[in-house]
Structures are given as C-alpha cells and as structure tokens.
Specification:
Elements lengths: L8 H4 L3 H12 L1 E6 L4 H6 L2 E3 L1 H10 L4 E5 L2 H10 L4 E3 L8 H4 L3 H10 L4 E5 L4 H5 L3 E3 L4 H6 L7 E4 L2 H11 L4 E2 L12 H10 L4 E4 L5 H4 L4 E2 L2 H10 L4 E5 L4 H8 L4 E4 L19 H10 L8 H17 L1
Parallel strand pairs: 1-2, 1-3, 3-4, 5-6, 5-7, 7-8, 9-10, 9-11, 11-12
The structure holds iron/sulfur cluster (SF4).
Iron/sulfur cluster binds next to helix 6.
C-alpha cells in the first residue's frame, strides 16, 4: 500500500507534516535531511546537514528507523554505518550524476592500471565504488584527507573532476582525476553571475568546489555546503551570491534573517539551481516511506563491510 488517502473530505484535513511527526514517534524513527532538500522537508527533519554531518548523525543515532531524505548514495552511507537499523528513502530513484558517472567496474579497471596509487573517492559515489577505495572524503574534509597521504604517493581521485582540480591547485598535488561532474554545479553561468554581481556590487560570491574553475576564480569564499553557512555566519558582510544548490538558502535565511542571500543563476531561464535528483523527494513521499517502511535500502553484508573501511578511515581522520 503506497497511496495517500483518497481525495475527498479526509484529504482536505490531511496535514503531512503532522503525520510525519506522528509516524516518527510511533516508529522511533529519525529523519535526516540534506541542505538541498525542499524547505518543507528540512522543517520537519530531526537533523539537517551536508554529507559529512549526515554521515556523523547516522553514526550517532539510536533510532530504530532512519529515513534518509537525500540521494541514494547518502542513504547507502547511512546503511553502511548502521547495518542493524532499517534505512528507508522517500524515492529510490533519487540518484546523483557524480555517482551515476562512476560505475564500479570502470573504477576497478582504473585502479588496476595504477596498482601503487592511493584511491580517494568523494562520498558522492556508490557503495560498490567506496568498497574499491582506500579513503573517502567529503567536500568538508577533502583537503585534510588528501593531505593525510604522503606527498610522494600517487593519488587517484574520483568521481568529481572539479573538486579534484580545485584540491590539486590549492594543495599543490598532482592527483589523477576521474572525469565526473555534478549537473547542478556545472550548470552555473559565469555571464549571469557577473551580471548579478554588477547589480549587487557589495555581495560576496560564495561557491561550492564542485563548480567550474572560471566561477571559482570569481569567488570570495569556496567551501562545502556546511562551510558556506559557517562562513556567512562569521563574515561581517550582509549580502551573498550563493553558487550551489539553492536549497541551502532556506537554512541560511533561517540562521541569518538580517542578511541577504541570492541564488546564483544557472545557464537556463530559471532563477535558481535545483538538483533534479534531490527534488524527487517530497513531504508526501517521506510520509509514505515512514508509513510503509519502504522503499528500504539493503545491501549484501560483504559489500557493506568493504565499503565501511574507507568511511571509517575518513571519520577517524576528520
Ligand atoms: S547536487 Fe550534484 S552532487 Fe549533489 S546530489 Fe545533485 S547531482 Fe549529485
């Protein structure tokens, strides 16, 4: 059974947020949501964060059920860290262009060609790729993880070439990069960004390192989603052009109501940038996932164990 109540008088008084709260109590469930989720999901979540914060929250939870409102690889990470808990996702189709662009077999073949190299994978990859990696990183801890590898060791970095190139440049490394990218961060338009900056000359440009180099070169600050929020909180400025998925603006405006946050425009007609994968999740699907405890994320134990090792190394190092 996966439908909402039938249309009619009952549906008119159906309060999705209230039903989610009720089911969370009844199921002893925790709802983890990424900053890129729509604001209604963020408001009803128990914890909102970026990939690293969510991985830590998943590790700490005592709940019987984890509802993961994010994308598939994030829910996999929650399952890897919590084999005995039920992990459900609002929409199993919520993937990621980075994870999809790095199939495990191709990644394995890449590694085999360079057996001496250390393989660092950005957390935006499948459990199967994690299982083939030596270390995992997020955009919050990537510099620390890369620097933990001796300077004379060759490093393979997958799957985001923009983050990899940014790390090579800032850390002076020569990592070999997988040619993946994020469809959202690659879609920002430099021309529109500069036009926006002309209209808001006082605004600081703050950008995620998954963006293309020409945009990062214009940024006043580059950081992970959590890093961008922390920067804006500490910074004395009052206006920011935010170059990442625009779901983050909800948390920024909530924490800093006196500041102005403007979504950087993509190279399309719309004014903000939304991840098509993240946006597959809706409050109604969160409700259904809690009610039916499905779709459920499971994986073979042998794969889970192998994928856990590089994640544990990351959590120890960060
Ligand atoms: S914003 Fe980009 S990296 Fe994040 S889930 Fe969407 S496609 Fe993947």
């Amino acid at each position: 059974m996966t439908d909402l109540p039938a249309a009619g008088p009952d549906l008119a008084c159906f309060d999705v947020d209230e039903q989610i709260r009720r089911l969370k109590r009844e199921r002893n469930a925790v709802l983890l949501a990424h900053y890129y989720q729509e604001s209604e999901i963020q408001e009803v979540a128990d914890f909102v964060g970026d990939s690293l914060e969510l991985a830590r929250a998943a590790q700490r939870t005592k709940a019987d059920v984890i509802v993961f409102a994010g994308v598939h690889f994030m829910a996999e990470t929650a399952k890897i860290l919590n084999p005995d808990r039920v992990v459900v996702v609002p929409d199993m189709e919520a993937g990621c262009s980075l994870a999809d662009g790095c199939p495990a077999e191709a990644f394995r073949a890449w590694r085999i060609e360079r057996p001496e190299a250390v393989a660092i994978s950005y957390i935006n990859c499948s459990a199967a790729v994690k299982a083939e990696s030596d270390l995992i990183c997020t955009s919050s801890n990537a510099a620390k993880i890369v620097q933990s590898v001796p300077a004379d060791r060759e490093i393979l970095f997958a799957p985001d070439r923009h983050l990899g190139r940014y790390l090579n440049k800032t850390l002076g490394r020569k990592m070999t990069l997988w040619a993946g990218s994020c469809v959202v961060h690659e879609a920002f338009s430099l021309q529109k960004l500069l036009a926006l900056k002309t209209r808001h000359p006082q605004a600081k440009i703050i950008a995620h390192p998954e963006c293309e180099e020409e945009l990062l070169e214009r940024a006043d600050f580059i950081g992970s989603t959590a890093g961008l929020i922390k920067y804006a909180e500490r910074d004395p400025g009052t206006e920011y052009i935010v170059v990442t998925e625009s779901g983050i603006l909800h948390e920024m405006r909530k924490r800093m109501p006196a500041k102005v946050f403007i979504a950087a425009p993509p190279d399309t007609d719309c004014a903000c940038s939304l991840c098509p994968y993240m946006r597959k999740n809706t409050p109604e699907k969160v409700f259904l996932a809690l009610r039916d405890l499905a779709p459920r994320l499971d994986m073979p134990e042998e794969l889970r164990r192998r994928a856990q090792k590089p994640i544990d190394r990351m959590l120890e190092l960060s």
